[in-house]
Amino acid sequence: MQQEATTKAQSAHRVMHDSGVPLASTLLVESLEPTNGVHVTSEAPDIFHAACDGDVEALHHHKEAGADLNATGQPNPYSYKGVQFEKRWNFSAPPLVFAASYGRVEAVKALLAWGADVLATSSTGLRARDYAAQRGYHDILAVLDDAEQKATGQA
């Protein structure tokens, strides 16, 4: 049974890899060299999963471990128990986009404070601001608009 699950996961990983969409992996997280004594274990959610859930503590662990906060990818579908995208195999986005899409204002604030690019886009060309606006997350929209004005020198 476990071998069958492993084979399915490997097959899905190949599909993701062949399509050019990086699949977040806790194994990858575990192999990162932690800094400042922070250790991210295989039980920690991947950075995209943490962004979807608004798990600021897990996001902080990823940041401290040297994760690229602007990398695009998606939650590992085999470890993520949240809402799954129907066409997820072709979709990727940076953590900021996932946090904004799921209405996680504290995660959005933290990612921006740590240097996430407010202008970064998903594979569909939409920014975090676009997803927040579509979903009516006005508090996140205000945070993102402020960050965008600062990033573009309009503040």
TrEMBL record:
Q: Work out whether the entry's keyword set contains Kinase.
A: no
Keyword entries, A-Z: ANK repeat
Per the UniProt record, one Pfam family is: Ank
Top-rank taxon: Eukaryota
The keyword Lipoprotein is assigned to this record: no
Annotated ANK repeat ranges: 91-123
Query: Which InterPro entries does its entry note?
Result: Ankyrin_rpt, Ankyrin_rpt-contain_sf
**Protein name (record):** Ankyrin repeats (Many copies), putative
What does the organism's lineage look like at the top?
Eukaryota, Discoba, Euglenozoa, Kinetoplastea, Metakinetoplastina
